[in-house]
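Known limitations

Structure tokens in this collection are predictions and should be treated as such. Users comparing against experimental data should check residue numbering before alignment. To illustrate the layout, the record for Quinolinate synthase is reproduced below. The input appears on top and the generated tokens appear beneath it.
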Amino acid sequence: MKTLQDKIIALKQKKNAVILAHYYQHKAIQDIADFVGDSLELSRKASTTDADIIVFAGVYFMAETAKIVNPTKKVLIPDENAGCSLADGCPPEDFKQFLSNYPNHTVVTYINCSAEVKTLTDIVCTSSNAKKVIASIPEDQPIVFAPDKNLGKYLIAETGREMVLWEGSCIVHEAFSLEKLIDLHKKNPTAHIIAHPESETHILKVANYIGSTSGMINYVKNTDHDLFIVATEAGILHKMQQDNPQKTLIPAPAKEDNTCACSECAFMKLNTLEKLYNCLSDESPEVKLEQDIIEKALLPIQRMLALN
Ligand code: 13P
Ligand code: SF4
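Generated tokens:
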């Protein structure tokens, strides 16, 4: 009998579709994807694919970005309710109003925002190229950075640049408990703590390495060390462990009172294998954007892609 995986593969071939998945997706989705990556790598893949259909197994702003960079393709998302606290916490109208207080500022937005917010942006960044993006802006030019205040604070500390920050945050990365992390490290004193820059400053201060999801995966692979405490969404452990079967990876502990109860992104986890099959079969839900939004949102993404 054919498994759901077999059916997805057959349908994908028949329809000339490609499955792009983020590292935070369920294992079963990562295993069936044509490409698994961080948000920068996924947007690059989306821009260059010659498939007719892109099935984007990630959150909505990522699928929207795929549509913006390759608008002639049909972009599908297994669950269109897969939001993101950063994107949802920065409504375009409010952001427009906020920006009116900062004329002449260069507007840098983290890719975790809506297509409409991207149309209000000068240059987009991801967690893997944010420092490079900031360095590309003339020293005397004031900057507004949105929507992630934690990534923004990290960038201010790293680059020495003053920036006006939007007050957004990731509910998953804000849920790590410093107290519990320190306790865990006391029990595993040789462990390297690795963290995503969406985490709060006090978590980043105790980290041996800070980087994007791909950055963390490469760090674990390329470091001559065998014990790590990983402060990011737990889905990343699948690929990390596959790449390093002999190394020990411990997820960083979350606060007891956090909204997601663990370090899993409830939005990312809305996508399931069943929904992926159905969306490919029905060619729905499809990401649709108006042409003028695509054109305006593409410019700041292209500026970012041109830098790397
Ligand atoms: P990456 O850019 O590292 O893929 O991160 C995306 C994200 O949503 C992290 O929460
Ligand atoms: Fe958004 Fe946080 Fe989920 Fe990433 S982990 S998609 S930033 S809510």
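For this record: The chain has a mean pLDDT of 96. The chain has three domains: 4-82+268-288, 86-171+297-307, 173-251. Please report discrepancies through the issue tracker.
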